[in-house]
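ok trying this again, last paste got cut off
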Amino acid sequence: MTTAVLPETAPVRIGIHRTTLEDLIQVARHRRPVVIDEAVFEVMEPSRNWLQGVVDSMGPGKDTPPIYSINTGFGSLAGRRAFAEPADAAELSRRLVLSNAAGVGRYVDEEVVRATMLIRIVSLTQGFSGIRPEIVTTLVDMLNAGVCPAIPEYGSLGASGDLIPLAHVAIVMSRPHTGEDIELDSGEAMLEGKVVSGIKAMAAAGIERLPLGAKDGLALLNGTSFSAAQAALALYDAQNLLETAQITAAMSIEALMGFGDAFIDELHQARGQRGQIEVAARIRELLAGSTLIDGNATTDPVRQPPQDAYSLRCVPQVFGPIKDTLAFAAGILENEINAATDNPLIFPSLPDTRKLKAVSGGNFHAEYVAFAADFISIAVTEIGSITERRLFRLDDGTLNRGLPDMLIDSEQTGMDCGYMLPQYLAAALVSDCKTLAHPDSVDSIPTCANQEDHVSMANNAGRHTRQIVANIESVVGIELLMAAQALELRLGLEATADARLSPAAAAALALVRGTSSDDGRPIDHIRADVVMYPRIRKALELVHDGTVVDTVNQALAG
């Protein structure tokens, strides 16, 4: 049933190994195909067989106890048997999907949808959900064919699972068990840039929509997949952003003729914090070969005292904990990608003394994801906060050690603003992040007649962290532009005309100057004001897609 994949593209295989963050990025962002290992279906079979036995036991005159989500209502309506007729189990799943598809707001990016679908597939194939194999193979077919359900950004509380967002996926792939399949009740999906019905999108892809069976509806909806998708995508970009920010920070330190003492290894070993030690080592690597840096482990500094402002001197002490925090979040989120998070979960291996193999718990509660997203938000905001302080210092003629005000050597002082306004933009973006970084995980509003009386708000945390990362990518992109301008200005001064840049700074500078901005014009050294937004947009692209890191790493390796 699974759609064939292109032979030249190795698919991500579900079931052999744990799914990694890199796997998720490949599927979500680069549309790498997915296949399910056949062994997975054997893992799924015991829970499915137990569930089928329960359904077979239902019917008039049969005393089947209420089993949550199989023959009962949901949330505060649990605990009472909703019906006795086996066919109604399928109708229960269908009605759940219809009622839960209630989101509002803009449609989230395709990569979020694809990441969500992948995580849901991985979760359902852990073997504890009792669903039919056709459910996961249909999701795989949708991914491989590019079917993208339209998911509104608002609706999930990050507990009881991401019910509303996941319902907007389930409604596209499912149809009624009996009766007419109404197009208005098939959800929405993106097709060739337009919003169409789920029926049209699935027909265009040649994929049959499925009737849902017992528990299928809740298994599709009840999990952390949507919140985890947003947090995981943000994490990946945050890790790249931190690597890029170390490069642009080193460029600024070099342009400002910073002191090397702050990065000597012994200093950082004395504190013993892993991230700090690693960042200091990276800064030393990035600054190596520069004659603009004053002092190092083998050479005394010339100027006294050998102390820079904190935004230069304390980069390891700020970026180090950020690196450690992102690593901590990565461990949480990779676990969550591979977790079974619906409810109830079915464990046929429980002792025979327990007849009810369906265990009700709270794996759908996304506190882990909410904490991870909040921590990422706080950490990335700090990347922007310290970076913006270096931008301010680069612009200020009283702080930048002899460079012109606003980094522009204008023929008429006051005629040109130079890089004044990019620093304004950075300040606005960082301020926005300080608001967005307020932790969502400390909020909770009870729902469902107080049955669901504590929720994680992980969806809000995920949305906010993605915006924070996007904001700070722009801030670091601005530093890339301003540091490049500052380095050239420094080399243009008589006192430092013979200075030698580090290979890392030279490579980053060459990248900037060899790149055309969004309007087609080169990102050149400015001596008079030019329109800035095309340059800033292109710098953002160089940061976001990893080009800055790749370019510098290649230069250092060569």
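PB: full thing came through this time. The first helix runs from residue 21 to 30.
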